[in-house]
Design brief:
The complex is a heterodimer of chains A (289) and B (391). Chain A is an all-alpha fold. Chain A contains twelve helices and two strands, in the order ααααββαααααααα. Chain B is of the alpha/beta class. Chain B has 13 helices and 15 strands. Chain B starts with a helix and ends in an 8-residue tail after the last strand. At the A-B interface, helix 1, strand 2, helix 5 and helix 11 of A face strand 8, helix 8 and helix 9 of B.
């Protein structure tokens, strides 16, 4: 029993990291119909900025997260103005894929040039490092922090999209873009804000998840498949979908690693195949017309 | 085009075709991890070689030695093979050197005999590599070499039940076999053996599994780099250390650049290894001083720099013995039985296996003058590769 609890906690922690990073991607895909393959690259920029802020500027962990999120959003503004704006909701998937994968390679090259090819650690503050006794086992404190972050992100997003005026406008713009426009909703501003939100969440996930998914230049490509899998399993645009997909896949992966470590990612992909076979649009996805 | 111009052109083409052979530059192709997660170890190849060249000049007799570097990046045999081919065909190198990962070394090995090129392996630590070609000499270490002393020390320190956790590839499997054989030979029991895929970054489930096995000691090997830090942190943060489970490893898991990241909780972790940056000898002091003079930070020094430094010594000896000619058999023969005092201690090339014999030190992580180091506590002198040699 104790073992099952232990595995569950590890699974939830891993799942939450997946969730925080993937939810931004899910929002982009579900609401703006953009397959943003550069999402991992933006998460990586967040990680690099945090690492730089912590190691070279010596700021507090919380400040570093802020710098990472704001910095990444600022860095993404030129991409939004010049490129992304043209492909929201309209263009065919091939153009999106080619453009965003191109951006990914571009960012990998730049990051490699500026920060060098080696892995960048994100040192944790004293309060978040080391073990924490939770009664029946010891757990890395950082994992508890990640789980808490995941819950906060999920709740905040749900409130934002379901309960605020911004959320109403966003849903209106998504469902009937032209009608929303006609009613005086500045859809391009809504889209730009949503883009910033998605990128910011990616950067946040890149920083808090760096213990599990370490930051290095090929981060942008290496984990992109995992993030896309979460979105396709959960259903694009659904918060609940992304959350349940992350937790489910985290559980499959962690249990697989515990029971049969030599199988590697086998159980992860097995569960993906089964779920997508049963739910072709993802757990909570809607079929797009 | 008139006739004169034509013949000049013909001469020029002829000159270009034959010109490459006349300049007496001997090229050495070094394949190492110069980018990606393992970039630090490739950088150390270069630091070690640069230190040797700075001390001994870039000339052997009247031959100029030039090192050409290529990036193997990750365990990627196909890429390494292509790089070796490029070095041999395009750069016309006379020697190959470096190589961090075993699978990459195994992919390069078949090219050596056909191209008559010796390969000086400066890291890849699976025993069988030197058996893949008579032209391979190794100046690093093997898993058997470092693991057999680890198993003996673990038993002597009172370990009864050991869980082995290794990376699921050549050296990991070597380490598992070496530890199991030695430890069970001494009378201990191995209660768990986990093989972890190379790409793993989250070690919590592995730790849980080890905890459930009831082991009192973990023996582990993972290739130095991000996974080793992740493993040690998972060991500390999941409360295994606090729960009294000891960690025993080869030095790959506690390389000096990682120690500050592991931090004080790591104090006391035991390891067996052939080189500690803190090794106390005048050779090591001179070596470190040279690295520093070359612009390297001493916080970045790892075992690959000393393997490369000694590897460069072996290459110079080979060039001297063959007088710059491509004669791999003669070159390899010349270094068999070679003995010298390396920054890591006294070493020699075993003539039977072409692998380096060296001291293996038992170290524990300790804090000296506010800095975490691997403090050498005991020496196993003149260790061969226990898998290759029959003694």
């Amino acid at each position: 029993m104790r073992t099952i609890f232990s595995i569950m906690i590890d699974a939830v922690a891993y799942g939450m990291v997946l969730f925080i990073i993937s939810i931004g991607l899910s929002i982009m895909m579900g609401l703006m119909r953009v397959v943003n393959l550069a999402h991992g690259a933006f998460a990586m920029i967040g990680g690099y900025l945090a690492s730089y802020a912590l190691r070279d500027l010596g700021v507090h962990y919380g400040v570093a997260i802020l710098i990472a999120v704001v910095g990444t959003i600022l860095a993404s503004i030129p991409f939004e103005l010049l490129l992304y704006r043209r492909i929201y909701r309209k263009s065919d998937p091939l153009i999106q894929v080619l453009m965003t994968i191109g951006i990914t390679f571009f960012i990998i090259g730049i990051v490699n040039f500026i920060f060098g090819p080696s892995l960048k650690p994100i040192p944790l503050p004293q309060t978040l490092s080391g073990p924490l006794d939770i009664g029946f086992r010891m757990l890395p404190t950082h994992r508890v922090f990640v789980i808490a972050c995941g819950i906060v992100v999920a709740l905040a997003l749900w409130l934002l999209i379901e309960k605020t005026e911004f959320g109403i406008k966003l849903r209106a713009s998504v469902d009937h873009s032209d009608m929303a426009d006609a009613l005086g909703i500045r859809t391009e501003i809504i889209y730009a804000a949503t883009f910033a939100l998605a990128i910011g969440l990616g950067a946040f996930g890149g920083v808090v998840g760096a213990e599990i998914l370490p930051i290095e230049p090929f981060y942008a490509l290496r984990y992109m498949v995992t993030f896309l899998v979460v979105v396709s399993v959960g259903g694009a645009g659904s918060i609940l979908g992304a959350l349940s997909a992350s937790l489910l896949l985290g559980l499959a992966d962690t249990t697989g690693k515990y029971l049969a470590p030599e199988f590697g990612d086998f159980f992860f992909y097995l569960s993906v195949i089964v779920i997508v076979f049963l739910f072709p649009h993802g757990l909570f996805g809607k079929a797009h017309a | 085009m008139n006739k004169g111009a034509q013949s000049i052109l013909a001469l020029a083409i002829l000159g270009l075709m034959t010109g490459t052979a006349s300049a007496d530059v001997i090229k050495v192709g070094v394949i190492g991890t110069f980018s990606g997660p393992y970039a630090l170890f490739g950088k150390n190849f270069k630091m070690g070689i640069d230190a040797w060249v700075a001390q001994n000049g870039n000339k052997v007799g009247n031959h100029t030695v030039e090192f050409v570097y290529k990036d193997e990046e990750a365990p990627n045999p196909a890429k390494s093979k292509a790089l070796a081919q490029e070095l041999l065909v395009k750069d016309k190198v006379q020697y190959l050197a470096g190589i961090y990962f075993t699978p990459n070394a195994l992919a390069v090995a078949p090219l050596l005999e056909e191209s008559k090129t010796p390969l000086i392996v400066m890291n890849a630590a699976t025993s069988a590599i030197v058996e893949k070609s008579p032209y391979i000499v190794r100046t690093s270490f093997t898993m058997w070499q470092n693991t057999v002393p680890a198993a003996r020390v673990a038993f002597k320190n009172g370990a009864k039940k050991v869980a082995i956790a290794v990376s699921d590839y050549g050296p990991g499997i070597d380490a598992e076999a070496a530890f199991k054989k030695t430890f069970e030979g001494e009378g201990g029991a191995v209660v768990e053996a986990v093989r972890i895929p190379l790409a793993t970054t989250d070690f919590s489930p592995i730790m849980q599994r080890i905890k459930d096995s009831g082991a009192d000691t973990i023996f582990t090997f993972l290739p130095s780099g991000p996974p080793t830090l992740g493993f040690v942190k998972a060991y500390l943060d999941n409360g295994l250390k606090a729960g009294g489970v000891k960690l025993m490893s080869t030095g790959d898991v506690v390389t000096e650049p990682d120690l500050p990241n592991i931090g004080d909780p790591g104090i006391g972790i035991l390891s067996t290894y052939h080189y500690s940056v803190s090794h106390d000898s005048k050779e090591n002091a001179a070596f470190l001083a040279e690295l520093k003079k070359g612009g390297a930070s001493l916080d970045e020094v790892t075992m690959t720099s000393v393997a490369a430094y000694d590897g460069a010594r072996v290459i110079y000896k080979m060039i001297e013995a063959t007088d710059g000619k491509r004669d791999p058999a003669k070159a390899v023969d010349a270094v068999k039985d070679m003995k010298w005092v390396s920054p890591r201690g006294p070493v020699s090339i075993d003539p039977a296996t072409r692998h380096i014999r060296q001291n293996v030190y038992v170290r524990s992580v300790a804090k000296v003058d506010g800095k975490l180091i691997n403090k050498e506590e005991q020496t196993f002198a003149d260790q061969p590769d226990w898998a290759l040699s029959k003694q």
